[in-house]
Amino acid sequence: MAFTGYLSKFSLPEIFEFLEQGFKTGLLSIRTLKSEQDEPVENHYIWLRQGRIIAAASKLDNQGLVSLINHRGWVSHNCAMEKFQASGGKMAMGLCLKSQGLLSAEQLTLLFRAQIMGQVSRLFELENGKFNFDFQAPIPVAEMTGLSMITTEATIKGLRSLRNWSALTAKLPDPTSAILKKTEIISNVQLDSQESRVWEYANGETDLNQIANQLLIPLEKVQQIAFRLIVSNLVEEAFIMHNNRVPIVENTEEFADLNSTNGFGQLSSEAFAANLFTLNTQEPSYTLNSREEQTVDVENKILEKTPSFSSGIDVSQSFLQNLVGFLKTKVEN
């Protein structure tokens, strides 16, 4: 069982977050895609157990960790392999050598950080790459120090040292959005000073532009810090809705003219009355009822804005009365 995809669709921080949240165990393989014909293809392998990174290498020959140990001059390649094989090859290489007094706990920690971050850090810069996660892949004890790291820690450390953000620019939060804390207690990772300062503004109300101005940090830097906090599952992006209050229309003079419509998709009664230039009649025997603190006299507006007409077209009195009655109901309703 496996799932595959491309880094152009899912960034490495997003993949790591998925694997950690799902407590996945298996092998994550990443293969670079050529952008030029003569560009070499690189492979990267990261093993996880229950969502935690336990080993990383550039090859599947089980020689990565022992080469690191030999390169540092702590234990020769042959000696390390002999001791490991003599133990039955079932214990993690690092713990095996530590149990025999060949490596210290501090050396194991340094080896693990060099092994993991040496592979992971440069992967964040990849714009083109194909990934595959194999749930059935065996765990290589020969590449293991015996230590592990949550993917959140690997992500935040890798992104801190990232210099070229072009592969992740489209993933950065919008400057007009805010960030909101998902937890009040940070236990998995340790934030640096700038991350801590941005974290304090994760209230869901202060947008990134304002945070940058308050902390005197470039906006792009604030966006990158916010992205690190988001993919580390510490905060979430919050979109701020700027609602402009629209005053309630209380006077028919504020209605649109015949070229526009009101909120119900109909012409306002006053605008209609103001443009009745083809009618000529006498004032009807009734007027509209007054409303609270406001009187809308539609009949007078019709008569005031209706010019004298002498074209000879005969308009019946009953038609005009029905029209005024119709406008009256519109205003009252």
Order of helices and strands: EHEEEHHHHEEHEHEHHEHHH
Low-confidence stretches: 243-313
Largest sheet: 6 strands, antiparallel
- Helical segment tally? 12
How many strands appear in the DSSP assignment? 9
Explain how this protein is built:
- By secondary structure, the chain is α+β, with helices and mostly antiparallel strands.
- The chain has 12 helices and 9 strands.
- The protein has helices at residues 12-21, 64-71, 77-86, 93-99, 105-120, 151-160, 193-199, 208-215, 219-231, 269-274, 298-304, 317-332, and strands at 2-6, 26-32, 43-49, 52-57, 129-134, 149-150, 178-181, 203-207, 235-238.
- The strands form 2 sheets. A 6-stranded antiparallel beta sheet has the order 1-5-2-3-4-6. Strands 8-7-9 form a 3-stranded antiparallel beta sheet.
- Strand 3 and strand 4 form a beta hairpin.
- Helix 8 crosses helix 9.
- The longest helix is centred in the middle third of the chain and has 16 residues, at 105-120.
- The radius of gyration is 36 Å and the shape is elongated.
- The chain starts with a strand and ends with a helix.
SSE layout and pairings?
Blueprint: E1 2-6, H1 12-21, E2 26-32, E3 43-49, E4 52-57, H2 64-71, H3 77-86, H4 93-99, H5 105-120, E5 129-134, E6 149-150, H6 151-160, E7 178-181, H7 193-199, E8 203-207, H8 208-215, H9 219-231, E9 235-238, H10 269-274, H11 298-304, H12 317-332
Antiparallel strand pairs: 1-5, 2-3, 2-5, 3-4, 4-6, 7-8, 7-9
